Amino acid sequence: MNELQTPPKNLVLIGFMGSGKSAVGRTLNQRLGYPLVDMDQVIEQRAGKSIAEIFEDEGEGVFRQRESALLEELVDPTAPRRIISTGGGVIGSLANRVVLRQLGYVVWLHAPEAIILERTSKNRDRPLLRTQDPVAEIQRLMAARKPLYAEAAHLKIDTSGLDCNEIATGILESARYFFTGHF
To answer: Which stretches of the chain score pLDDT less than 50?
Structure first.
């Protein structure tokens, strides 16, 4: 069976920073036992430094190249089923959006701007929010990315007001229909 005939089999989480991708990914990992690939963590491990340091030392462009290269690596029909938690900006490239859909069931975790600001304001390791006006930056980035997330996603879930178990349950119930016998 060639790569194009292999059905996609992964659960792929996309969404803005602070939307819950890492936490929901960990919950899905606990419930399913599938390996969790947190793309930001893999990039940090390989680079030997934080994403903030990559942005500062090498620039956002280098980070995005690493992100795209890792995404391409994940398209491996021989790999086991996985849960893939992406970085918030992975959808910026058309090629990446195509690869996301090849990987499996793409779930867009979404939260309103106020919730995102609340969740991200506690974390100083958000290089895109190291600005005079993080609220304006969140609004700008979310407006630019919203149609890209919508293009890539099979399912959109508003994570505000839900805990990780509730979100994971919704994902698994929806994924069952997507995978119909393959999951």
So the answer is: 1-5, 182-183
Question: For residue 81, what are its two tokens?
Answer: 């089923």
Give one DSSP letter per residue of 19-75, joined into a string.
Answer: SSHHHHHHHHHHHH-PPEEEHHHHHHHHHTS-HHHHHHHH-HHHHHHHHHHHHHHH-
The answer to whether the CB of 69 falls within 8 A of the CB of 93 is no
Residue 141 near residue 12 (C-beta atoms within 8 A): no
Q: What domains are defined for the chain?
A: 8-175 (3.40.50.300)
Q: 3-class DSSP state for residue 108?
A: strand
Q: Are 83 and 28 spatial neighbours (Cβ–Cβ below 8 Å)?
A: yes
Beta carbons of 114 and 23 less than 8 angstroms apart: no
Question: Residues 106-125: pLDDT tens digits?
Answer: 999 999 988 888 877 765 56
- Residues whose CB is less than 8 angstroms from the CB of residue 1 and which lie 6 or more positions away in sequence, other chains included: 77
